Model the fold of this input.
Amino acid sequence: MIGVCGVAMGSLAGMLKARGYSVTGSDEHVYPPMSDMLGGWGIPVIQGYDPAHVGTPDLVVIGNAVSRGNPEAEHVLNARIPYRSMAQALFEFFLEDREVIAVAGTHGKTTTTALLAHILETAGLSPSYFVGGVPGNTNSNFGLGAGKYFVIEGDEYDSAFFEKVPKFMVYRPSHLVLTSLEFDHADIYRDLDEIMLWFRRLVNIVPSAGRIVRSAKYETLARATERSLAQVARYGAGEGEFAYRFTGFDGDRARITLSTPAGELECDTLLFGDFNFQNIAAAASMALLLGVGADDVRRGISTFLGVRRRQELIYSKGPIRIYEDFAHHPTAIAGVLAMMRERFPVARLHAVYEPRSATSRRNVFQDELPGAFAAADAVYIKSPFKLDGIPESERIDIGRAIAAMHAPNVDCLLYTSDAADE
Done:
């Protein structure tokens, strides 16, 4: 496996090892937590790329972070060694004989995928799952169950240098959850229309006997599903066939009511905020459409512990609480801060942000970024990660963004330490 320390690649390596295959890998950057996880699974990992590392395997899996010119990839091509993308290998080894439920969208994929898998597990259906985060209930990015369902996070990013299609197309889902659809991944997509085209193509491969649930909040999803031959149901805050409403807090738990075609479902959850209530409604509506009982859905939601780096409480002492979240898109940033402001209305809210994703380091959201922090009292921004890797004309002007943040009387500081990036 070339590029084995990526989250998806490393998880696939663990799955293959669990199935009894002999797995080895290499990567340019070998560091925890993935290096520790691979070591725990007994998978040898070599740091750096060299043709001598490849040997004579039956199959090479090439990660999407690997480009032409990589010494090992060039050796594989020249020696005509069989190779696959991560998505292809995942389908051929694990998905082909399962009923795949893909969760796709700009926001909320990871939490929704993990929660849906947990609900199905709670219902005794023994699902398999593959998710881009670590669920608190299992502490693993993947699980291999004995049941017919495989719940997978349907990433819209491309698969490999030799497979320029979104990963979710390779998974060939039987059922589909669509959480949101906005412009993202500016490094590979020209505009929103290009992304929407791929979502339409994804909808087009869902069987007519399948189920699709989509957020009622996004007009883009209505357009993407308008020609679906599969049944489409909507969920949303007070709208859709599966409408939810927040009814208050009970200690550390939030209470929501989900209206369904079969009646109302009262739930409580450790998660909070509308972003998470949308994810809960998405997972619950798909589970109900698949025939899971209301009591199992309620119990699954109640016992779900969330996902690391998604609204994860990492420190709590006295009046101070520190949460970590993966948000990088302006909509997600604004959503996370709105959730915190709603949950802690009188607290002073500090936001610490590093522009690290391919999109957040570009200027496509130059004007939207300042407003995303409107709910914060203070903002601390790290200088963008490896900005020299972005064409100068496309780089975000972080100084301009900070100047705009001062306008609504938000304290803002740029952190430009020369300390190691990690």
